[in-house]
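Quick review question:
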């Protein structure tokens, strides 16, 4: 009888505990986006209004994160550590990853980070018919209505075509 009561209580409580855990992950992810966005703003404040380069595969000498030199998790973490925003996030790697992102368990996963920078915020190059990309903050029209970071599921670690 006691076992049956415990089983019923567990059946009632487990969904609400799962919902609380998922809500905590969402809050943590939102906090990460805020921290990265503030780092993005601090970078432009210290660099004459220039936006942090984001092109991992282009000719920039540095970017907000760098392509890892290898496939190990340590290589991926080093790509974050040498990135231009790392000093602005209090040198905390966990900020770059959403706790709900399960891609880290996939050894073929290229990127460790869960976010990327939107096109209009110096994110990706112009594609035919796309919008202009701002390279300095003052080029962004209505910046208070724009987002900078978005959660990314692209296995390469960068998005193509986000606005």
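Suggested answer, residue by residue:
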């Amino acid at each position: 009888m006691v076992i049956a009561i415990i089983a019923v209580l567990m059946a009632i409580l487990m969904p609400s505990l799962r919902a609380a855990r998922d809500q905590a992950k969402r809050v943590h992810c939102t906090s990460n986006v805020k921290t990265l966005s503030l780092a993005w703003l601090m970078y432009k404040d210290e660099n004459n209004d220039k936006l942090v380069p984001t092109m991992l595969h282009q000719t920039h000498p540095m970017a907000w994160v760098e392509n890892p030199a290898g496939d190990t998790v340590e290589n991926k973490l080093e790509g974050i550590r040498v990135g231009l925003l790392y000093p602005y996030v209090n040198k905390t790697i966990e900020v770059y990853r959403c706790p709900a992102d399960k891609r880290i368990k996939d050894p073929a996963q290229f990127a460790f980070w869960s976010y990327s920078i939107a096109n209009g915020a110096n994110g990706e190059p112009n594609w035919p018919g796309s919008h202009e990309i701002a390279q300095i903050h003052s080029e962004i029209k209505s910046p208070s209505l724009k987002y900078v970071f978005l959660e990314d599921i692209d296995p390469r670690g960068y998005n193509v075509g986000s606005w």
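Why it works: The CA atoms of residues 45 and 51 lie 9 Å apart. The mean pLDDT is 77.
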